[in-house]
Structure formats: structure tokens, C-alpha cells
Specification:
homodimer, about 150 residues, 6-stranded antiparallel sheet, 4 helices, 6 strands, elongated
Chain lengths: ~150, ~150
């Protein structure tokens, strides 16, 4: 589907798919993120990381998750309609993100549920599969989004 | 429990609790994180955010999640024992994180399962409740960690 900034709850249906742009990650990006949020040696120190189970520097899983969200938001599916996000489910890191990798996601609408108590909105669930440049799925998650119905103001 | 850098799989038991240190977040922190990973207006622009459902600038949920992980890692529960993380479950944002807030987490061991196929390791699950300075639970999640057994090398 062609992205738009004007999608509302009624515009989503289970099975719709959106492909994101790609984004590249450098060693410097990985280390900078890890210093702020996840200072484990295999995210910080390429030499020490070589002795880890990963065999080299890998991005914090939080970094992979944050980049997966960034490419999703860059689809600009909504602007007026988004209210917020209640959460994420089944976040899974399958293959590490390494320096020089480029990732992109395929995002599929996995559920659309109008609220019973507040029918001017509903929850749209998005199932994300994030691929590296070798077409391997490195990361998956499901995000929940509270989205306004059209004309809800 | 008193944190240590030397905990292994056998050292964890369901019900153990660890309290993290606190961390404060500024408006500048919130905007800088959002620019990188979650450029939605209610995370970027205090004036526009006042018209959102949040009534003011709020941190990206990813930022809250990343800070919750940071204070957890700062407990330094393990260093030699950690292999990596397979994922997160039931990530829920309950109350927004706002400029000037200070958060801390209570982390409880919710499951410890030795691997059948690789008995030198197992999965430790941690249930996180993150509080603001008003003692409100603003965020919860469960993290999975692959942890080496003692003497596994």
C-alpha cells in the first residue's frame, strides 16, 4: 500500500502490508546507543565482543527495536489519527544487528479492534518483521496503536 | 537483594526482587531521543503536544523502555554469565513519562528455566515495574535473558 498521512481506524484491515525504507547502522551508532542505554561489553567494545557468544560487536536489542520503530514511523501512516501506543507484544531478537548492516521491515496489520467503551477509536495491531541486507529476518514484534476513527475530531 | 556482578543461573529464584537506582529525564532528552527514533509531534514539540491527548510533551515509549533497561543493567547482576536476550513480552505503557520525571524500577524474577538442549544455560525472566516520583507505575514489561550456569565456562 502507498503510505499516506491520513489513515484512520476505518482505513486499516487485517492483512494489509507496508514495506519500510531501509536504514543503515554503523559501529559508532551501535556504541553510542549502548553507552546511553545498554552498556554491556558486546555492545561497546569490538575487541572484547569478539570473545562473546556473538563473535563480534552487535547492536543492543533496544537499538534494533528503536530502528524498527523509526522506519515504521517514517511510513507516515497517520498524523491526526494517532492517540498513542499501549504496548508491544512478542518482541523477539533472532539474529544480531551488526555494524554495516542495513535493515528494513515488512509490517502487516494483524488486528483492528474498535473500542466498545470509546467507539471514536480503536486498537490497530502491527506485526513487524525486520530484515537485514541478506534477507534474513533478524527481529519481530507486534505493536499496538490507539487510532482515531474518521470524523472523530 | 544486594547486586553483584557474579550471578549465574543457579543464583536466581522466582520471587527475588531488585530495586534499581533512579534516573531523571529532561525535556531535551525526550526531544533528542524522539528525533532519532520516534519523531511524532507529541514527543518533539511542547506547543503542539499541548493539543494532543497527552496534554503536553511526553517521552517516546521507546525512551521509557530504554531507560527502564538502563537502570536494570546498572544493577550489574551479571557480566560473565549473560549470553544475550531472546526478547520481551507484555510491554505496556500505562502513564506517560514527562519532562522532569525521575523513574526507578522494581524488578522481580518471574521464571528460571534451564535449557534442556543446552544445560549449561537457561532463561531468566524478569518482570519490571517502573515507577515515577509520584510512586505511580508508569511502565511494565517482562524481559528474557539467556544466562550461563555456574562453571559452564
Amino acid at each position: 500500500m502507498r503510505p499516506s498521512r491520513d489513515l484512520f481506524l476505518e482505513d486499516f484491515a487485517v492483512g494489509q502490508r507496508f514495506e519500510t525504507e531501509g536504514i543503515a547502522v554503523t559501529e559508532a551508532d551501535i556504541i553510542a546507543f549502548a553507552r546511553q542505554f545498554d552498556p554491556q561489553y558486546f555492545h561497546l567494545d569490538p575487541v572484547a565482543a569478539a570473545t562473546s557468544a556473538f563473535g563480534g560487536l552487535v547492536a543492543s536489542g533496544l537499538h534494533t527495536l528503536s530502528l524498527a520503530m523509526r522506519v515504521f514511523f517514517e511510513l507516515n501512516l497517520w498524523e491526526r489519527a494517532i492517540i498513542g501506543s499501549p504496548g508491544l507484544d512478542h518482541v523477539r531478537w533472532l539474529i544480531p544487528l551488526r555494524p554495516g548492516d542495513t535493515i528494513r521491515s515488512m509490517v502487516e496489520i494483524s488486528a483492528v479492534k474498535r473500542s466498545r467503551s470509546k467507539p471514536d477509536r480503536g486498537v490497530v495491531s502491527t506485526a513487524h518483521r525486520t530484515f537485514n541486507q541478506h534477507h534474513q529476518v533478524i527481529f519481530t514484534m507486534t505493536c499496538l496503536h490507539i487510532v482515531r476513527a474518521r470524523g472523530a475530531g
